[in-house]
Amino acid sequence: MTGIDDVARAAGVSAATVSRALSGRGRISDATRARVRAAAADLGYVVSAAASALATGRASNVGVVVPLLDRWFFANVLDGIASRLAPEGYDMTLYSMSDDRAQRDGVLDTSLRRGRVDGLIVLSVTLADDEVDRMLALELPVVGLSATTSRFPALRVDELAVARAATEHLLGLGHRRIAHIGAGYAGDPGLDIPSLRRHGFASAMADAGIPDAPFAAADFTIEGGHRAALALLERDDPPTAIFAASDEIAFGALFAARDRGLDVPGDLSVVGVDGHEMGDFFGLTTVAQFPHEQGERAANAVLAAIDGRDEIGDLAFRLVERTSTSAPRGGLAEVAGRPSP
Q1: Which residues pair with 143 in a beta bridge?
Q2: By three-state DSSP, how is residue 161 classified?
Q3: 77-135 pLDDT, tens per residue?
Q4: pLDDT in tens, 9-50
Q5: Which of 12, 152, 306, 328 is most solvent-facing, going by the fewest CB within 10 Å?
Q6: Residues contacting 296, CB < 8 A, separation 6+
Q7: Does the structure show a pLDDT above 80 at 339?
């Protein structure tokens, strides 16, 4: 079995230099580091995680606390995190936080206390105050990604601005009967993403002189969007446009329009949020949020926090116009309540 001394002989350096080169810590020239890593690769040598932790006090591992593992958005964020951690020699351990209290307690009071991670990324998990207390008591660097608490540093998208961008796009096309499909609370949204998107929609509509715009609740799935959109389209005054709180909800709305025999975008315009990889296939107008890049930013931030630095900031978004949105039939004058010329 290849050991550190074998790598040292092959690279023509000391065992201590090999240790510094492979750990990424300590002063060493780039040329020597490259030579040592090449020798280690040729010999198939991998640093023992346990030995490295004893020598450096670090586990070379980052924990990621996630609410769901089966959503497209979260999967892309996780891929972005992993792609940034791996070149730095860090592994990633996932901790799923379900709605089950016993399971959550197990993560906070047992799994995270085993000392297996150097830092944490908390991804869109809603935490109670006592859960935040217990997480901070671990005395680990913690970085939130779209976190629902202000008690640790977080990277965030301006979700109010995201919702306003989507809604104002539809208003600008001439729509006035615009509905929102999503979740969250109608009042003070706090840091809850669905509530922020609902609040941004409502405020944009109110600014346009359209208070109490229709809202339909749905989970963030195609099925949920389909059910909610069908209900909206069965109203006496069905919407001419829908702002969906996610692209998957929006896909469901597109299927609902098809089931009702409606033309998109002539009879119904639909806009979503996220930038789903299938959006181009469906011709979906969306507010893209670049989840893979969000994951990379989160990984950079937690690595910086582990080293005592701060790389917290805002995350980008961009409206991507496709064929699912257009002016309503009859044009701006008709939908605004005036006869067409």
Answers
A1: 121
A2: helix
A3: 999 999 999 988 899 999 999 888 999 999 999 999 887 899 999 998 889 999 999 99
A4: 888 888 778 777 776 666 788 888 888 888 888 887 766 554
A5: 12
A6: 80, 81, 83, 84
A7: no
Quote the DSSP letter at residue 121: E
For the CA atoms of the chain, what is the radius of gyration? Answer: 25
Measure the CA–CA gap between 291 and 81, rounded to whole angstroms: 10
3-state helix, strand, coil in the chain (%, to 5): 45, 15, 40
Q: What is the helix (H) or strand (E) element at residue 142, kind and residue range?
A: strand 142-145
How many C-beta neighbours within 10 Å does residue 290 have? 19
Please count the CA atoms within 13 angstroms of the CA of 308 that sit on its side-chain side. Answer: 0
Cβ-contact 89, 60 below 8 angstroms:
yes
Q: What's the token pair of residue 233?
A: 């389209």
Residue 216: C-alpha distances to residues 24, 229, 245 (Å)? 52, 8, 11
What does residue 157 show for φ and ψ, rounded to 5 degrees? Answer: -90, 145
Integer Cα distance of 114 and 94 in angstroms? 14
Burial 153-178 (b: 16+ CB within 10 A, else e): bbbbbebbebbbbbbbbbbebbbbbb
